[in-house]
Write the structure tokens for this entry.
Amino acid sequence: MFNSFLSKFKTILESDKTSVKVPTKPSGQEKVKATIKEKETDKSEGLNRVVFSPQKSEVKEEIPDVKANIILENAHRIEAEVKSKEAEIKDRLHSIEDKEKYLFSREQSLDSQNTEVKKKLDQIDELYRKQLEKLENISGLDINKAKELLMSSVEKKMANWVSKKIDETKDDLTSRQEEISREILSTALTHGVTDYVAEYTVSTISLPDEKIKGKIIGREGRNIRAFEKATGVEIELDETNDIRISSFDSTRREIARLSLEKLIKDGRIQPVKIEQVVAQTKSEMDKILLDEGKRICQEVGVYNLPVDLIKQIGKYKFRYSYGQNLAKHTIEAVKIATALAHEFKADVNTVRLGTLLHDVGKVINDEEGTHIELGVNLLRRYKLPEAVINAVAEHHEDKPFSSVESVLVYLGDAASGARPGARYEVHEEYLKRMQNIEEIAKDFPGVTSVAAYQAGREVMVIVEPSVVNDDEATVLSQNIAEKLEEEAKWAGQIKVTVVRELRTSSTIIGSKLNKNAEKNED
């Protein structure tokens, strides 16, 4: 295409040269002659000047020649570049054709190789099948029976290995069980820290001045006597401006504290006003219990309980066991048991609710029975889940544990109540109490040994079987229980168990039976 364009361009250029006649350049002599002639004509005309300049026609004739030369040079350059490009393209085409031929030959080679591989595989499969048939004929087993035989052999070998690994793991856990238990318990106990502030058997109120103290005492002490009569507490005054309200009934002490604060704020302290304020405070006690119950429930993360049950929980604030506030103890126990439940992958909600309600029977004062029985009956009235009720019923090991959750409730309760400093019972008094219970039981005839445990709530009595028979053992347990009820009222409810055990043994020498058999009765 470019060659045709170049040929056309050359023909056009040649036609232009033929049509335009380029005048020949004058020689040097001709130019001098023309100049002299021009000078002479100028003299004849009276003009005294000499002009040396080429003629205008000569300049105009040189311009087309220069342009033509430039165009030809550009055309030759372009022609050379095109030829080099054509050569380069031809080389590349040859290279592509060579690669195409190589790939085609390679493809044919691969096809032939694939065909050969397929043939080889078919031959191998055929050989494998024939060998398998020969093996089945020789062994008398088909492939399925051979697999079963091989698997059974492997299972036997693996069973020995697995049993060894299990034994090693058991030994390792046995050696580390104390360490692991301590680690789990220490982690759980760190969750028992609470910010709940408990009040003990004495509440203190600071007075603004001495005048208020005089008003509280009244003329001849009538105001203070009226206050003590209305509230059922004891008021203690000293030289300072502090008043101590003392009572073992924490609810009455709280009512007295709130009433006294209202009277001090009002300023009018007289017997009639005291009775009115105390009556008003008692009527507001339900709201106080509800607020305290909500606080405790929120502290441990329990919600949506019945309102009356929340009020019972609110009584925890005003209940103490061996100097330990029941609300503080419950919050600690819930946090510890919940942390253990997370460790053991147990039902956290059951453990949390069971621990919160495990001592709810202690705040029920209008019914008789142990705090476990009262608590179980209360929870059944509110139709709480059976797992929660079982956890409450089993937290003192009065019944065998029915679930892991019951064990965790028991551990949370024990960890909070048994830790050093949690309860303020003196050790010597505790030992004296236990010894007194055992001495009372030992005074009965036929008793050989007595063991008191569970803080004196349970007593086991071992009797001589030759002295006490089965019927007498039943009567003896009742008599001991009644005696303990009379002389150890401070120990609460006590369970007495009488054990009568008879053991006999005989000795045989050779083939003769020793007729003088020895009888040992324990």
About this structure: The radius of gyration is 59 Å.
